[in-house]
C-alpha cells in the first residue's frame, strides 16, 4: 500500500474493491463478473485520467518514489558482460557513481551512472546518490579511457545534486564538475545521457554533456531543487509545489525548451510498476540513438555536441538594423 | 597582430565611462565593513576600491573594473545588444530585470569585449554582481561562449572576472545548460591552445564556480572572496557541525590546492600583464 502515492488513492480504492469482489466470488460462489468488469473499466479510465494529467509535483513524487528502479537495475538489465571499475586514482572510490565497461547490443560501451541505493544500508553507503569530487573524477577517468579506446559513453543521471559538505568543498567539488563539463565537450566518441529519476542541477550535469539527452517520462531536471527555490523565492520550503511548476522541470517542459532530445515512455503509473519493461524500453531507445551516432566521424561527434549546447538559451537583441557586431 | 589592433582603434570607445559617472556613491564617506574605518569615498575609488587601512576589497562594478584594466579606458564592447527574455514566464522575472537595468545602467550581468593591457590585446569578460546578483542566464552564457569563440578566432587571451551567485533560477534548466555551453566553448580554447585566465572575485559560487570560473589555465582570486559550490547554509544543515572561519574564502581554496594565486586588487593588473607577456614570447 505504501507503494501508492496520495494522488493514486482513488485508483487504489477501486483496485481494493475489485479484489474484494473477486475474493467474494471464490468464497461465496456468487457471480460478480459483470460488476467486476464495470469496476475494471472504471479503474482503467481513472488510471488514464490520473496518469495522463500528472502535475509537475506528482511527477516529482514519482521520480523520487522509494520503489523507483535505480541505475544498478538498469545496468544489470541493459548491458551484457558488465565489469565495474573503481576509483579516481587520486583520493578514493565514490559509490554514489558507478562506472564500468560492458556491451550494449553487442557493442562495447562505457557506462557511468549515479546510484542512490536500494535499502537503508545501501543508501548510506552510496551517500543517497550525492557524489563527491572523487565520483566526478572517477567518471572522468573512465570517460577518458572510453575516448582512448573509441568506446561510446552511456550515462544515467539520478541525483538530488552533488554532495554539499566541507570535504567536498576542500577537494574541489566545483572544479571536478567544471572539468567534466569541459572534457565531455571534447570527447570523440558518442555520448548519450539519460535522466532516469532526479536531475539535480550541476551535480547531474557533471555527467550530462552528451550528443543526446534523453529523459524518462516522469523524471525531472532542474537548476535548483523545488524546495530550495521555494525557500529563496518565498522563504518557505513548503511552497515547493508552486516552485516546481514555475521552474518548468519536467521532461515535457525540457523538450519544449529544446534541451531534451527524446522522452522515454514509462509504464502506466511510473517505472516502478514494471521495471523490466522500463529497462527494455530504455535499451531499445539507447540502441536507436547509438545507431544514429555511430556513423559520425570523431570531429563530427564533437561538433554535433557543441552545436547541441550552443543552441540552448533564449534571448533577444536590441539591434534591429545591424548584427550583433 | 598588434598593428591590426591599433588600426582598429577607431572603433574603440570609452563606453563604460558614462556608466561609471552615473554611479555616484550615496555619500562622501564610506565605512569599511571589516575594520570600521570611515573612509572618503573619493579616496576609496582612487585606491581601486580597496580599504587603505585593512585591505578590504569593496565591490567593483563591471564598468569600473574595465576602466581599471584596459589602456586609456579604451574598450570595444561585444554583443551589447543581447537582452534577457522571460522564457519560463517566471514570477516577477521581467520586472526584476527591468529594475536592475535601470539601477545599474547595464543590459545584463556581464560585459564582454576587447581592449589592450600594456599593449597586449585581450578579450575581457566582467560580471557585475549588482545585476541579478551576477547570476548566469541565457544572455550571460551566450556572451561568454561568443567571447571564447572570438578568442579562438583572434588568438587573443581571454580574461574573465567572475562575480556571481550561480545559475539564474528564473531561467530554469536553460540557465543550468549555460554551464555546459560556456565550458564547451572553453574546451575549444583549450584545444586551440589559447590562454584563458579566470579571476574569481566576491562572490563566485554555485553553477558559475562549477563551470567556467574553475576552468582557467590560471585561476586567480581576489583576497577574501567567497568562492564555493554549495551554499554555506545548505552545508551547515547537512553536516551539522561548525564550519571553519575561513571556509570557502580565497585563502581557504588556495590552501586546499584549488587556486593558482590570490592577488590583491592593487597588484592584479601588473600580475595579469606579466602573465600576458609570458604567454606572448614563444620559443
Ligand atoms: Zn578596512
UniProtKB/TrEMBL annotation, chain A:
GO terms for molecular function: acetyl-CoA carboxylase activity; ATP binding; carboxyl- or carbamoyltransferase activity. Gene3D superfamilies: 2-enoyl-CoA Hydratase, Chain A, domain 1 (3.90.226.10). It is an enzyme of class 2 (transferase). Pathway: Lipid metabolism; malonyl-CoA biosynthesis; malonyl-CoA from acetyl-CoA: step 1/1. Its EC number is 2.1.3.15. One of its GO terms (cellular component) is acetyl-CoA carboxylase complex. GO terms for biological process: fatty acid biosynthetic process; malonyl-CoA biosynthetic process. Keywords: ATP-binding, Cytoplasm, Fatty acid biosynthesis, Fatty acid metabolism, Ligase, Lipid biosynthesis, Lipid metabolism, Nucleotide-binding, Transferase. InterPro entries: Acetyl_CoA_COase_a_su, ClpP/crotonase-like_dom_sf, COA_CT_C. The keyword Chaperone does not apply. Residues 35-292 form the CoA carboxyltransferase C-terminal domain. Its main location: cytoplasm. It is found in: Cytoplasm. It catalyses: N(6)-carboxybiotinyl-L-lysyl-[protein] + acetyl-CoA = N(6)-biotinyl-L-lysyl-[protein] + malonyl-CoA. The keyword Nucleotide-binding applies. Belongs to the AccA family. Component of the acetyl coenzyme A carboxylase (ACC) complex. First, biotin carboxylase catalyzes the carboxylation of biotin on its carrier protein (BCCP) and then the CO(2) group is transferred by the carboxyltransferase to acetyl-CoA to form malonyl-CoA. Acetyl-CoA carboxylase is a heterohexamer composed of biotin carboxyl carrier protein (AccB), biotin carboxylase (AccC) and two subunits each of ACCase subunit alpha (AccA) and ACCase subunit beta (AccD). This is Acetyl-coenzyme A carboxylase carboxyl transferase subunit alpha. It comes from Croceifilum oryzae.
TrEMBL record, chain B:
It catalyses: N(6)-carboxybiotinyl-L-lysyl-[protein] + acetyl-CoA = N(6)-biotinyl-L-lysyl-[protein] + malonyl-CoA. SUPFAM superfamilies: ClpP/crotonase (SSF52096). The keyword Lipid biosynthesis applies. GO terms for biological process: fatty acid biosynthetic process; malonyl-CoA biosynthetic process. Its EC number is 2.1.3.15. HAMAP family: AcetylCoA_CT_beta. This is Acetyl-coenzyme A carboxylase carboxyl transferase subunit beta. It is found in: Cytoplasm. Acetyl-CoA carboxylase is a heterohexamer composed of biotin carboxyl carrier protein (AccB), biotin carboxylase (AccC) and two subunits each of ACCase subunit alpha (AccA) and ACCase subunit beta (AccD). Keywords: ATP-binding, Cytoplasm, Fatty acid biosynthesis, Fatty acid metabolism, Ligase, Lipid biosynthesis, Lipid metabolism, Metal-binding, Nucleotide-binding, Transferase, Zinc, Zinc-finger. Its cofactor is Zn(2+). It comes from Croceifilum oryzae.
Amino acid at each position: 500500500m505504501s507503494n501508492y502515492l496520495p494522488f493514486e488513492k482513488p485508483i487504489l480504492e477501486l483496485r481494493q474493491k475489485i479484489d474484494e469482489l473477486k475474493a467474494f466470488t471464490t468464497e461465496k460462489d456468487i457471480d460478480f463478473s459483470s460488476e467486476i468488469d464495470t469496476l475494471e473499466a472504471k479503474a482503467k479510465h481513472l488510471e488514464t485520467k490520473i496518469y495522463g494529467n500528472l502535475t509537475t509535483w506528482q511527477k516529482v513524487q514519482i521520480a523520487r518514489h522509494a520503489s523507483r528502479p535505480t541505475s544498478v537495475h538498469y545496468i544489470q538489465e541493459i548491458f551484457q558482460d558488465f565489469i565495474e571499475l573503481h576509483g579516481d586514482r587520486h583520493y578514493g572510490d565514490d559509490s554514489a557513481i558507478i562506472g564500468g565497461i560492458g556491451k550494449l547490443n553487442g557493442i562495447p560501451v562505457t557506462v557511468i551512472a549515479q546510484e542512490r541505493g536500494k535499502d537503508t544500508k545501501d543508501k548510506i553507503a552510496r551517500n543517497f546518490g550525492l557524489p563527491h569530487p572523487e565520483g566526478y573524477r572517477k567518471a572522468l577517468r573512465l570517460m577518458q579511457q572510453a575516448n582512448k579506446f573509441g568506446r561510446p559513453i552511456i550515462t544515467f543521471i539520478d541525483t538530488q545534486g552533488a554532495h554539499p559538505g566541507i570535504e567536498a568543498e576542500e577537494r574541489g567539488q566545483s572544479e571536478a564538475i567544471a572539468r567534466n563539463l569541459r572534457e565531455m565537450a571534447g570527447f570523440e566518441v558518442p555520448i548519450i545521457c539519460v535522466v532516469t529519476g532526479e536531475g539535480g542541477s550541476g551535480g547531474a550535469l557533471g555527467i550530462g554533456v552528451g550528443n543526446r539527452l534523453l529523459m524518462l517520462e516522469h523524471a525531472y531536471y532542474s537548476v535548483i531543487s523545488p524546495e530550495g527555490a521555494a525557500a529563496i523565492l518565498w522563504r518557505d520550503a513548503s511552497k515547493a509545489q508552486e516552485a516546481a511548476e514555475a521552474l518548468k522541470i519536467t521532461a515535457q517542459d525540457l523538450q519544449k525548451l529544446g534541451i531534451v532530445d527524446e522522452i522515454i515512455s514509462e509504464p502506466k503509473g511510473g517505472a516502478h510498476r514494471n521495471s523490466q519493461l522500463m529497462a527494455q524500453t530504455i535499451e531499445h531507445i539507447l540502441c536507436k540513438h547509438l545507431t544514429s551516432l555511430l556513423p559520425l566521424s570523431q570531429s563530427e561527434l564533437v561538433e554535433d555536441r557543441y552545436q547541441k549546447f550552443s543552441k540552448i538559451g533564449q534571448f533577444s537583441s536590441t539591434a534591429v538594423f545591424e548584427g550583433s557586431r | 597582430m598588434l598593428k591590426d589592433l591599433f588600426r582598429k582603434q577607431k572603433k574603440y570607445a570609452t563606453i563604460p565611462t558614462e556608466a561609471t559617472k552615473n554611479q555616484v556613491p550615496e555619500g562622501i564617506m564610506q565605512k569599511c565593513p571589516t575594520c570600521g574605518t570611515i573612509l572618503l569615498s573619493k579616496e576609496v575609488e582612487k585606491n581601486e576600491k580597496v580599504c587603505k587601512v585593512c585591505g578590504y576589497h569593496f565591490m567593483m562594478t563591471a564598468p569600473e573594473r574595465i576602466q581599471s584594466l584596459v589602456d586609456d579606458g579604451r574598450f570595444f564592447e561585444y554583443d551589447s545588444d543581447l537582452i534577457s527574455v522571460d522564457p519560463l514566464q517566471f514570477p516577477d522575472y521581467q520586472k526584476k530585470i527591468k529594475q536592475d537595468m535601470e539601477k545599474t545602467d547595464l543590459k545584463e550581468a556581464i560585459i564582454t569585449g576587447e581592449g589592450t593591457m600594456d599593449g597586449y590585446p585581450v578579450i575581457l569578460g566582467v560580471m557585475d554582481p549588482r545585476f541579478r546578483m551576477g547570476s548566469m542566464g541565457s544572455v550571460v552564457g551566450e556572451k561568454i561562449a561568443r567571447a571564447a569563440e572570438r578568442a579562438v578566432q583572434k588568438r587573443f587571451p581571454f580574461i574573465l572576472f567572475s562575480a556571481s551567485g550561480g545559475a539564474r533560477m528564473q531561467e530554469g534548466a536553460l540557465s543550468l545548460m549555460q554551464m555546459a555551453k560556456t565550458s564547451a566553448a572553453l574546451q575549444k580554447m583549450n584545444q586551440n591552445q589559447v590562454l584563458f585566465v579566470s579571476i574569481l572575485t566576491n562572490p563566485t559560487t554555485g553553477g558559475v564556480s562549477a563551470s567556467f570560473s574553475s576552468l582557467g589555465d590560471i585561476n586567480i582570486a581576489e583576497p577574501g572572496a567567497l568562492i564555493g559550490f554549495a551554499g554555506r547554509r545548505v552545508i551547515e544543515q547537512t553536516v551539522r557541525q561548525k564550519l571553519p572561519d575561513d571556509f570557502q574564502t580565497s585563502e581557504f581554496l588556495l590552501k586546499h590546492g584549488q587556486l593558482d594565486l590570490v592577488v590583491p586588487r592593487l597588484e592584479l593588473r601588473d600580475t595579469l600583464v606579466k602573465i600576458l607577456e609570458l604567454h606572448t614570447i614563444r620559443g
